[in-house]
Design goal:
The chain contains four helices and no strands. By secondary structure, it is an all-alpha fold. It has three domains: about 1-30; about 40-65; about 85-125, no CATH class. The N and C termini lie far apart (about 100 Å).
Length: about 130
């Protein structure tokens, strides 16, 4: 064991006590009522600000930041489109027949779904 002079031992004890007090300020100087209230108020305000930002982003306060306007009048109506198969560039006879097949298939499916909605029983159609 090392032999430490009494003067040096007292300085080590004082340094240890000062370090301990500096590491735990709430027990020595921050245990006042005002300090606890301010710390609680700070936490409540932080939670309130976080909740307000989250609610604003979610749109509960009048729309939010990321609101998308739908129905502004810039929509293209299917009735306004006048494109035919001949208007498509680079469509050869094989591609044209494949494209016609796909369009016809989709059209038949839509017709069958519309008939089933109205209670009309249809026979199966194979293409």
């Amino acid at each position: 064991m090392l032999s430490v002079p009494p003067d040096e031992a007292n300085r080590i004890k004082i340094a240890f006590a000062e370090g301990y007090i500096a590491a735990n300020p709430t027990q020595s100087q921050g245990s006042t009522r005002t300090y606890r209230w301010l710390r609680t108020l700070q936490q409540v305000l932080a939670i309130a600000v976080f909740t307000a930002i989250l609610a604003s982003l979610m749109g509960s306060f009048g729309g939010g930041m990321f609101r998308v306007n739908v129905g502004s009048g810039n929509e293209v109506q299917p009735e306004d489109i006048k494109v035919t198969f001949n208007d498509v560039k680079g469509v050869g006879p094989t591609s044209l027949s494949n494209l016609t097949f796909v369009v016809l298939y989709i059209y038949i499916i839509e017709q069958r779904q519309n008939q089933n909605l109205h209670g009309i029983c249809t026979c199966s159609v194979r293409i």
